[in-house]
Every structure is written in C-alpha cells, then in structure tokens.
C-alpha cells in the first residue's frame, strides 16, 4: 500500500511539474515572438555593455541597440533580408550613404532600413507625436508633441544612444546617431501600434521603483575637465558606486565655496550610473549645470558633492588641462591615461565599477630619479630657462606601462604621456625639451619657477605616491647651505642620482658619450641618457687664488668682484668640492660647487665688473668677510676628507689698501718646493676693464 501511494505521489508531482514547465515555456515563447521589444530597468546592478549589432536569439536574427541589459531595443528580422540588413548596418558604421531597403520583420510585418544625412533624418521625423531621445542633437522640441530625454530615464553611461520617434498612423522610426567621426545616421522604420505606450508605461513604472527604493547616500566625483579653449567644454562627472539607487534631492556641488544644486531628473541615480554635468557650450552628452564658476576648476583647492551633513571631497589639480597638444582630464589622484594618437585624453560618461589599474601599470616605488635640472639648458649660446627637466629611471623587474603615473615638482603637476611599456633600466624624460620630440621615452611638461629645493614625487591613479627628491642635498659633510648649478655664461649643471644619492653631474665630454649639439653646449647634463655615475678616479683640489676684498673701479669699491679660484692637484679633477666659509664672528656658510674638468674653477656672485670677459660659477649670495680672522676650507663631498684651507684677515694675504684704492688678490704658488701665499700682480691676462688699473688679480689664469 505504501509503495502504491508513493508511486501515485510521484506521478502527480511529474504531472504538475510538466504543467508548470509548459506554462512557463508558453509565456516565454509568447514574449519572444514579438519582433519589437523595448527593455528598461535602471535598478539592474549588472555591468552594462554598449551595443549596436546583430545577435542570434532563440533561433532568430535580431538587431539590438542600447545598453545591455538595462536599456535597449531589439528588432528581430525575417531571414530573407538578413544579408541586406547587415550590409546597410556596415555602411552606417563606415559612414556611407546607401539607398533604403525594404523587407519584413520576424512577425512578417514590413520595415525599411537606410542611412541618411542629418537633413534627411530631420525630414523623416516631422509630424511625430512622441520621441524618446538618446542624442540631444535630435531633440526637435518644436516638431515633436512629447519628448522624453535623459531627464525622464536613466542610463548607466552618458553617451549618445538610440532615438525612437512614433507617429499617429502607428509607424515608428528608430534612429542611431553617426558612428565614430562620420555624419551618417541609421534609420529603421516599422509599424507597432503599442510601442509608444509600452515605452512610457515601462519607464514610469521602473522609475517609480527606483524612486521608492533610492538611498540618501552620496555619489562620488570621478573626473573633471576645466580647460577653457577646448571644443568639448568644461564638465564634471559623478558616479554611483553602489548597488542601490541614490536619491537626487538635496545634492549640490561646492566649488571653492560657491554652491550649485544639481539639476533634478528622474529623482535618482541608478546603481553604477555615470553622469556628466557641463556648461551649456559643451559638445558632450550632458546635463546642463549653471551657476558654477567653471574657471575655478583650474585653481588649487577642492570640489565637493554634498547633501545635508554628508560631503565627498575631490582635490583639484591646481593647474591647466592642456599639455602640449593634448587635453587631459583629472581623476582626483592623476590625469587620465592616453594613447599617443588621441588629442583628448579622457573618458567622460563611461560607466565603471572598479578603480583597478591595468595589470601592467607601473608602480611608483619602482622608479628613482636619474637626473634633475632646475635651471634649463644653453642653446646656441643662450640659456633656455624653460628647458628644465627630470629624468626617471625604472628599476622594476617586470615590463610595465607608465601612462597612469603623474609627476609632481613643486607646484607643477603633469601626467606622464608615454603609452608604450618600459623595461628595467630605461629612462623617462619629462620637460619642455624640443630636441627630444619624437623620442618614445619623452613626456612633455613645462616646469615653471622650480628650484633645487622643491620636492619631486611620483604617484599613480590609486593614490600611491613616492617622494623621489625631498629637496635636501646630503653629503658626507652634511647639507650645504647653497648649491651652485650655473655659470655666468648660462651653462648649467644637473643634479645626478646614483642609487638614490645625489651628486653634481660629472662632465660628459667623453668620446664614448654621444655628442649632440645640445650635449656639447651643456657638458654637465645628459637629458634622456643614463649617465649618472661617480667617477672611479679619485682626485683632490686646493685653493689657488682668493679675492676676499673685491675690486676698485676707479675710486669705487666693487665688493661683488670677490671670488675664489680652485685648481686640481691630481691627474684627474674631482667633479665637485664642498666649501666652508668660517668667519671669525658669525655663522658658517657651506657651498657645494662643480669643478671644471680641466683648468681652473672660479666662484663668484655673478659677472665681474673689472674682469667682464671671465666666466665664473655663479652663486648670487656669495660673499667673503672682509674683516676679522676668517677661515676657508674645502672638502671631498663624498668622503669628507679635508683637502685644503686658507686663513686670512684684513692684513692679508692679499692687499686691501682703502687709502690708495689698491686691491690685490691672494695667490698661491710653489717656491723652493714650498707652497706660499703672496699678493697677486696683473700680468696682462685676463682682460681687465681699463677703469680698474689698481685692481691686481688674474682669475682663471695661472701666474
């Protein structure tokens, strides 16, 4: 008996299951039999995919356009016209005008498809009674009785989408905007008496669900663009990162203290929805935003999005958005990445659900500075002060892509504009260097008003940052008070880095070193070339002439003509020295300066009055005490070894005769195997201004 009952129950179960399955199948088939179907569900959390293409669905060929799966239209066609339909679809994608083609849909009703210029589409939609607009250019408010646009429905992305126009005779026209850079529209006309009501009812129903379930959380600001002279216009992008709708009510922007309410649309932002708010002249798909001071997007400060006591803050770049010929948007932590062929480096309106970078993105921690030049370069005898630059060296083990990185130097912030991948040991050069144009490792930047003490840092779009240079030059003797990087003829010296340690750039006039015209004029620099390395040849230097009193031009004392002269005492000249000026009373001053590869090295505060043709290493603050007992010392900046010292007072060595207006520098020479200091005499070299006959010195010339 129990067996019979069990068998009977199983039979009933299978019968019920079969009925249920058949019922579902019938409903599914009934739904899928429709040739035209509009789909809208803004509360879907699944990632959307932009589509305008042919697909196979349940054994039928259908054209699908929109955002799959949350907002799209499907048109299924009869198999007899598939080839022609696809040919016209291809013509639209290629921007080609072709004649209309007529055939039938899957339910045997007729349709027409063709490509048209804008004027042709405008003529076709005349007299329509309803339109749902996905491209604001097609919003003919005077020609359509009822128009619904982005203010009536939600999309995940803020791009152009399909447009539907309906007419009193039951006809409908689907219009797709031009593909890419073309001006050719795609049009598909068909009859569907119920489509208009289905669209309206579905949108109103789903919007009410979104409004009823929206949350008072905050969207986030994800991208901005604030350059004045761009054809795109200025804009702000916001994004809903949550899996639930966010209510619009009460949202406002605050840009440097100026508040602007966000325009109300459906009342909510969909899960993972992106929106663009822009000025009226912007060419993007957008929601207009008035009352904002768009020029403030270039200033230092914050843009915030808030409601009641909630605030999301977004740091402004504090700079422009135009670098060379490319426009870059700002994403809060970095500029947008860019392909080198693109003029606009940005992705406004694009839906995204992850802030993850490319798996090949470079890590800022894998970079070090190779070279830093805060003064510029000499070109054709003239210092180009805007040719300042940085060289980065990649020390990572894996090949990586650096375009998500940005460099900060003082108040200057620039994206790295290199789209290719780099390998360990490669150099990236950043600066305004015309001679590097076309070099795949060069990234255009203009570093203004930077100094040697300005911090240099590298960061990525995730906020990871590495300080490459803290502005402090450390030596074994300590941190010098000043560093000399320029000569009076404009020639400059870069700071080199070897394993993260700073040194003054060695002389690069070496036969093994590639010599360009720029390199020849700037032998203590090596832009875009891996060169920084301390010489293995050890050398020493000493004082050779000291003018601690300056010059007399006639009866006028010229204190700025004070100078020091150094000479190498070994076969190989050291590349730099650490100088200490120890006054009898006061604070010790230390100066790090480069030494010439050959001959004598001179240090002064600038051009000499009495020796105007002599070139000096220039330290604008340089001076020597002229009273009391004073001591000068020079050291090896790497080891701290004391190389030489010179003590003087107002009585000498050297002559400072204020009564007779005579000044003679102190000069070091060898006599009978011993080094002595004596007062210098002028022997006709170098050129001395005739108005300085009582100034005896010979800077740069051995006596």
Task: Explain what the structure shows.
- This protein is mainly β and 703 residues long.
- 40% of the residues are buried.
- It is built from five helices and 52 strands.
- The longest helix has 31 residues, at 2-32.
- Residues 1-31 have low confidence and may be disordered.
Please outline what is shown here:
This is Lamin tail domain-containing protein. With 703 residues, this protein is mainly beta. It is built from five helices and 52 strands.
List its traits.
Immunoglobulin-like, disordered N terminus, 5 helices, six-stranded mixed β-sheet, 703 residues, 52 strands, single chain, seven-stranded mixed β-sheet
Furnish the topology, listing elements before pairings.
Blueprint: H1 2-32, E1 36-40, E2 49-57, E3 60-68, E4 71-77, H2 82-94, E5 101-104, E6 110-116, H3 118-124, E7 130-132, E8 146-148, E9 163-166, E10 171-176, E11 185-191, H4 195-213, E12 220-225, E13 235-239, E14 246-247, E15 252-255, E16 258-261, E17 268-269, E18 274-278, E19 287-288, E20 302-307, E21 310-315, E22 322-323, E23 326-328, E24 344-345, E25 367-373, E26 377-379, E27 382-384, E28 389-394, E29 406-409, E30 412-415, E31 427-431, E32 442-444, E33 456-459, E34 465-469, E35 482-483, E36 495-498, E37 501-504, H5 517-521, E38 541-547, E39 551-553, E40 556-558, E41 563-568, E42 576-582, E43 589-594, E44 600-604, E45 617-618, E46 630-635, E47 642-648, E48 655-657, E49 662-664, E50 666-671, E51 674-679, E52 695-696
Parallel strand pairs: 7-8, 18-19, 23-24, 31-32, 35-43, 44-45, 49-52
Antiparallel strand pairs: 1-4, 2-3, 3-4, 5-6, 6-11, 7-9, 9-10, 10-11, 12-13, 13-18, 14-17, 15-16, 15-20, 20-21, 22-23, 25-28, 25-36, 26-27, 28-31, 29-30, 29-33, 33-34, 36-37, 38-41, 38-50, 39-40, 41-44, 42-43, 42-46, 46-47, 48-49, 50-51
């Amino acid at each position: 008996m129990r067996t019979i009952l069990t068998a009977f129950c199983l039979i009933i179960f299978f019968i019920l299951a079969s009925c249920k399955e058949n019922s579902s199948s019938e409903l599914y088939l009934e739904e899928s039999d429709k040739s035209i179907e509009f789909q809208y569900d803004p509360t879907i959390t699944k990632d959307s995919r932009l589509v305008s293409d042919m697909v196979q669905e349940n054994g039928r060929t259908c054209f699908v356009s929109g955002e799959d799966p949350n907002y799209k239209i499907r048109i299924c066609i009869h198999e007899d016209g598939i080839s022609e339909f696809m040919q016209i679809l291809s013509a639209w994608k290629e921007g080609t005008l072709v004649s209309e083609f007529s055939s039938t849909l899957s339910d045997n009703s007729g349709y027409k498809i063709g490509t048209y210029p804008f004027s042709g589409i405008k003529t076709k939609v005349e007299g329509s009674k309803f339109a749902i607009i996905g491209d604001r250019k097609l919003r003919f408010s005077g020609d359509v009785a009822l128009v619904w646009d982005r203010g009536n429905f939600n999309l995940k992305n803020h791009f152009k989408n399909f447009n539907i126009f309906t007419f009193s005779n039951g006809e409908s026209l689907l219009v797709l905007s031009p593909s890419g850079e073309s001006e050719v529209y795609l049009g598909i006309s068909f009859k569907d008496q119920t489509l208009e009501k289905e669209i309206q009812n579905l949108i109103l129903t789903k919007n009410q669900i979104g409004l009823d379930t929206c949350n008072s959380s905050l969207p986030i600001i994800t991208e901005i663009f604030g350059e004045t002279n761009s054809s795109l216009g200025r804009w702000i992008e916001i994004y809903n990162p949550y899996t639930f709708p966010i209510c619009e009510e009460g949202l406002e922007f605050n840009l440097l203290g100026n508040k602007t309410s966000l325009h109300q649309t459906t009342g909510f932002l969909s899960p993972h929805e992106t929106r663009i708010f822009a000025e009226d002249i912007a060419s993007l798909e957008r929601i207009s935003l008035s009352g904002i001071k768009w020029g403030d997007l270039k200033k230092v400060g914050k843009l915030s999005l808030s409601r009641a006591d909630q605030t999301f803050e977004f740091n402004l770049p504090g700079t422009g958005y135009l670098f060379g010929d490319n426009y870059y948007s700002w994403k809060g932590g970095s500029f947008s990445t860019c392909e080198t062929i693109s003029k606009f480096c940005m992705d406004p309106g694009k839906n995204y659900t992850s802030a993850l970078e490319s798996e090949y993105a470079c890590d800022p921690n894998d970079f070090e500075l190779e070279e830093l030049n805060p003064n510029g370069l000499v070109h054709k005898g003239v210092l180009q002060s805007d040719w300042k630059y940085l060289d980065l060296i990649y020390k990572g083990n894996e090949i990586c892509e650096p375009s998500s990185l940005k460099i900060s130097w003082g108040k200057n912030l620039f994206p790295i504009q290199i789209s290719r991948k780099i390998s360990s040991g490669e150099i990236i050069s950043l600066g305004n260097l015309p001679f590097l144009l076309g070099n795949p490792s060069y990234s255009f930047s203009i570093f203004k008003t930077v100094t040697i003490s300005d911090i240099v840092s590298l960061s990525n779009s995730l906020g990871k940052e590495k300080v490459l240079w803290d502005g402090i030059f450390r030596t074994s003797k300590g941190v010098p008070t000043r560093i000399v990087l320029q000569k009076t003829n404009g020639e400059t010296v870069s700071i080199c880095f070897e394993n993260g340690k700073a040194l003054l750039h060695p002389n690069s006039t070496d036969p093994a070193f590639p010599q360009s015209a720029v390199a020849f004029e700037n032998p203590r620099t090596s832009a875009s070339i891996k060169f920084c390395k301390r010489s293995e040849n050890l050398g020493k230097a000493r004082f050779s002439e000291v003018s601690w009193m300056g010059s007399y031009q006639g009866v006028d004392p010229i204190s700025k003509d004070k100078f020091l002269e150094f000479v190498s005492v070994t076969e190989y000249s050291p590349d730099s020295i650490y100088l200490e000026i120890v006054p009898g009373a006061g604070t010790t001053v230390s100066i790090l300066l480069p030494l010439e590869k050959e001959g004598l090295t001179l240090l002064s505060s600038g051009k000499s009055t009495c020796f105007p043709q002599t070139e000096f290493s220039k330290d604008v603050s340089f001076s020597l005490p002229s009273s009391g007992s004073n001591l000068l010392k020079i050291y090896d900046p790497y080891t701290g070894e004391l190389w030489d010292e010179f003590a003087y007072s107002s009585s000498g060595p050297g002559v400072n005769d204020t009564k007779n207006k005579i000044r003679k520098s102190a000069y070091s020479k060898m006599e009978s195997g011993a080094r002595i200091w004596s007062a210098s005499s002028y022997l006709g070299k170098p050129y001395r201004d005739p108005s300085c006959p009582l100034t005896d010195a010979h800077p740069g010339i051995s006596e």
